[in-house]
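does this look right to u?? magnesium ion version
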Amino acid sequence: MLHIKGIGASAGIAVAKAFVMETPSFDIPSHKIEDVAAEKARFQDAIAQSKKELEAIREHTLRELGPDKAEIFSAHLLIVEDPEIVSQVNDKIESENMNAAKALDEVAQTMVMIFESMDNEYMRERAADVRDVTKRVMAHILGVTFVTPASISEEVIIIAEDLTPSDTAQLNRKYVKGFATNIGGRTSHSAIMSRSLEIPAVVGTKVALEKIKNGDLVIIDGTEGDVFVNPSEDLVKEYEGKRADFEAYKEELKQLVNEESITADGHKVKLAANIGTPNDLEGVLKNGSDAIGLYRTEFLYMDSETFPTEEEQYTAYKTVLEGMEGKQVVIRTLDIGGDKELSYLDLPKEMNPFLGYRAIRLCLEETDLFRTQLRALLRASAHGNLAIMFPMIATLEEFRAAKALLLEEEAKLKEEGIEVGQYETGMMVEIPSTAVMAKQFAKEVDFFSVGTNDLIQYTMAADRMNEKVSYLYQPFNPAILNLLHNVITEAHKAGKWVGMCGEMAGEELAIPILLGLGLDEFSMSASSVLRARSLVKRLTKSETEAIVNEVLNMDTAEEVVNFLSEKFDIKK
Ligand code: PEP
Ligand code: MG
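got this back:
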């Protein structure tokens, strides 16, 4: 048995066979071939195998996710046998003695270029399909294994270097019992998605991909960050027991679904949920969340092959607002860049993407893109209780510029006779400059939401994706707590409310000190809401307030952690 230690990203236990998912890298050979007939047969074979796979994926998708999602694979099946592609590849093999891989590569590249340069949006989208399908055929020609989460049809634990957000979005909970990745930390996006899907996950294991083979029996403990490979029968039994206990605890918490989030001495807070897509609504309602404190709209862009239209966005936002029946929904404008990329937005490679051209910086430059989203949001505001939030604000000028565009679009809509509802306008506090300058910002915003994932990364200068420096992800560092203190105090002085939508808001050990500091809204993965409610009900506001000064004056994160765990009897 092998024990691998990683970072617990999503609580829960899973026991299943490993499904190793490696991203294939293609080395396209350049050699000439002699046996033309054999090379053509190789190409034909690769097509036949790809076709078989695509048919199976289409069937599976149809059964599990419905005809809409399956349609894309029908389109892929047409492309895989497209006579134009097939004949051009065969021509190159025949007349230039080119090997099949190189021939396909050249033909595919030309095809993609032609599609991409077309005026018609529908045709442009086909470029991505051609790329996808030819990658699959290429993998067969070169004998490289090609897998995607959509092709999984038995109970497994996925083992991968990392999962992209769209990989994670494709995961089918029925089959994927958990995952373990080599890279990432608690706040990387695959980790966040695993919590919203309620799939146990361990990230940042460094070696899982090298050490685990397809079919190995694996236990993952997403609470403790443990991965066991080919465990003994006794250990499997022990973990089956732990899994049952975990499920029973989850059942018990369900009693709190319709209860208020109120401390034992009568102080009300909001326990809200973070979501990535309208599909997450189900979990939000099931867990009795008081609001949605963060809707990360970038998933709408990442799950698409081109920019989502105003209408598509409007529909998504409206669905969420209506689903929440008057409870507040904080929708964040596009936060792309860093570890979130768009395949169809060609951004130059940067030395430090987390410090680069991203989020509001990009939106204030690409104003057409931004205005489309703002219009969709403003139109949706007529259907519920909306708060619009700008990410990655560093300066007041940025906030003012974003708000000015919002007001311009609102005026235009009203001129067109389109209804716009009431809404609030706020910003993320995730860059230290804004936490320090909270007093000035508080005069101009309706609310703040603290993004601790980034605020900690930038304050401690520690990349949130790099497990080597993950020890510096220190929510309890007095530096962070003092910044929070300043943000909340200044906001309250100006009569504004403060939420927190970074992962810290859902950490049990953090809740007492955040409550003491006066945080108004705690936004976390929906699956953590009931656990947080159970804790809030046991605490009193007065006991948490009484410790604030002492904690703010401590020297190290460790000191704070020890003090809080002892005082409130909570394990870190
Ligand atoms: C954050 O930075 O804390 C946050 C909530 O935003 P994201 O994780 O999407 O960067
Ligand atoms: Mg952030």
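Residues 21 and 147 are 6 Å apart (CA to CA). idk if thats expected tbh
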